[in-house]
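Figure S4 source data
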Amino acid sequence: MNGKTVAIIGAGPVGLAAAAHVLERGMSPIVLEAGSEAGHAVRQWQHVQLFSPWEYNIDKAAARLLAPTGWNSPDPESYPTGGELIDQYLDPLATRTPLREAIRTSSRVTAISRAGFDKAKTKGREQAPFEIRYQNGKGPEVLRADAVVDTSGTWFSPNPAASNGLPAIGERERADRIAYGMPDVCGTHRARYAGKTVAVLGAGHSAVGTLIDLAQLTDEVPGTQAIWLLRGADPAKAFGGGRNDKLAARGELGSHFAALVAAGKITVESGFGVTHISDSGGRLKILTGACCGARSVVADELVVSTGFRPDLSFLSELRLRLDPAIEAPAALAPLIDPNEHSCGTVRPHGARELAHDEPGFYLAGMKSYGRAPTFLMMTGYEQVRSIVADIAGDKKAAARVELVLPETGVCTRGGLEAAAAGCCGGPAKEEASACCAADETAKKAGSAGCGCS
């Protein structure tokens, strides 16, 4: 045992996996979870079925920790919901293994620094322990640790409605009628949305899933209407790779959504970049554009499913090296930048790509991806395996990163690799001249292409 104390922020899947690896390495984990239970963020979307089957959602060190408890591993080929992930994996891991002694719930981290060192002071900095301040029911607390792994995620810092990254004008004032992420419209929040006109902004899987649920609610409750507000001009890009998607559940979701749109179950408003939200007779008037080109939609409720961003506010006294656009670690950002890459091809990465100019501090899990949207749980598990090896001084194991992700076949921002897997209508027949089916069709019609590459 090397006696190191490792503070882990967040008791979600990746945070608990990090703690399991810390234990295996003979070090002491302390997990600070802002919620009242482990997996607090997952509990907000427990109605959602994951796109990846169980084989991709269980960390190996966590499984080894669970084995002596009599835990039964779920069917590796079945797809859990968030609730099943909690019941069959996260709760047993947090309550039936030695991790139960390491987790401090209702403990929200408010600041991290080095003991006796502000951000500007260098000499002797690496030897100083980290000082983590957090708030619990008893008041402010202080914890010291030799290393820190921030796996706090991004769920509670969603992107706002306006496409410029700022809240739309009037958005904050109407927060009581705006939800973010993926509300449970057919379950917990059914009464809020049944019989209402609901606008959903976004083109990712959260928006698609919410619109599918609203289409179901439309069949069950008269007066329910779903409106899809799409910033882009082409709805088909949200339909995904269908049968080409190596994550079958994700491909099926896109195909089902495409059928609902084709059947007119969902009203589509494309090219709709929200700029203003105002009141209109007790309802929401959602506006895009200005002056002569302005358009508006009136709805009772708005769901903003435009992705998430990391909360970096409590890290201001640490020396972070972040990409200025993606807000991911600088060495990782080029591998995941959605301006250059589509989901499905993430080069192996670990401690080296996730480290900062603050030795011993790492971002991991969804938060490490900053504003990029393509994270999978198994990516986080491999990240923390490498990070914990690095903290333990096992540089060889830290460098031995093995990450094999399933091809997605889902194209959100183009990219030749995603196109080959089936984005934008599937692969092109004449691959030498076109990157995908839509590109090939456009070129045959005389244009320069579909623009996805």
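Figure S5 source data
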Amino acid sequence: MRRLRACLGAAAAVTLAAAGTTALVASNASGATTALGNRWYAAAPYLMPLDNDPPDPSAIMDATGLKAFQLAFILAPNGGGCSPTWGGTASVSSDTAVQSMISTIRAKGGDVSVSIGGYGGTKLGQACADAAATAAAYQQVITKYGLHAIDFDLEEPEYENTAAVKNEIGAAKILQQNNPGLYVSVTTAGTADGTGWFGKQMLLEAKSQGFTPNNFSIMPFDGGFNGAASQTSALTNFNSILQSTFGWDQATAYAHEGFSGMNGRSDTGEIFTQADFQTVLDYATSHNMDRFTFWSLNRDRQCNPPDNGGRTSGTCSSVAQNSWDFAKYSVKFAGVTPPTTTPTPTPTPTSCKTAWSASSVYTAGNEVSYGRHNWKAKWWTQNEVPGASEWGPWQDEGAC
């Protein structure tokens, strides 16, 4: 999964697509006609629409007042090429499933942003020949779904590839120019001092290209963080980096700064509770930061049975909560008071599948049980423990 791939070259069709990338976002199959205010796109939490037991966005909207969702992730095809897919497998051009979800959200007065990149898979910046070809691939996504917002999630291993980052930043600049009013966020790794060496190199690339997005967001988790105090400290340090890189004053830097957290138990075992989110939210609003989001709505529900932080799951938070508790902090950042809701009843566990075996070979769709949860194989696997990694071969289907 975490491997660099050589650029695959640009076909004539890609060159032609790059030459005319102005989007007609007001008329498309998903029915987008009116953008939300940018504050909603800045508050949109991440949601995987095709993986990790996708929640019903309508239910989240009704329970919390949330209007915007950050759908993830757009990648290059697993088999190679410079065309957009969901997760490397589902072509954007032929998609109907995500489009249906977007239409449902818009019918209720909401909207979506789409995130490109993420942690796993091959990114289009790695696979496409240059910035123009990369932008042409992303323009297909903007046009298909009539987008008013897009997020560039630049992290490992892509942001360690100078050519790939140059392509992504160049593509972001092209899209910004060719889609007037497009809200653009750039998300990257967070460290105690703000962001690491590769994150700083990405900022310098943006400066060299004269590209300024609506915000640069850091992800202060999976790096030795411990609660909100360590996160707000990283945000303060990142603000200083933005000042020194772009020559901004403190207020301007905060106006171009964002936070992207992880609710509950992180991949490395850090715990971020609702109280931590409130503290960071207070910091973000008091400093007039541009963005407050988190990974992810798929995880914004209590594990069943509750595991008290014992493991990291892609489908639950591993902390005590009512469903969609963390989404309400995004709603607050957007300037709206969430409705009062009653706690979500704990569902009755289903029966367990056959126990997972380290010696058995499993293929996509096979189901097993492990750790009192049922799991479904995403692809061929052997001797890979279910739940060991959110990006591993097993999808958590819930308690049993």
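The first strand starts at residue 46 and ends at 47. The CA atoms of residues 378 and 393 lie 5 Å apart.
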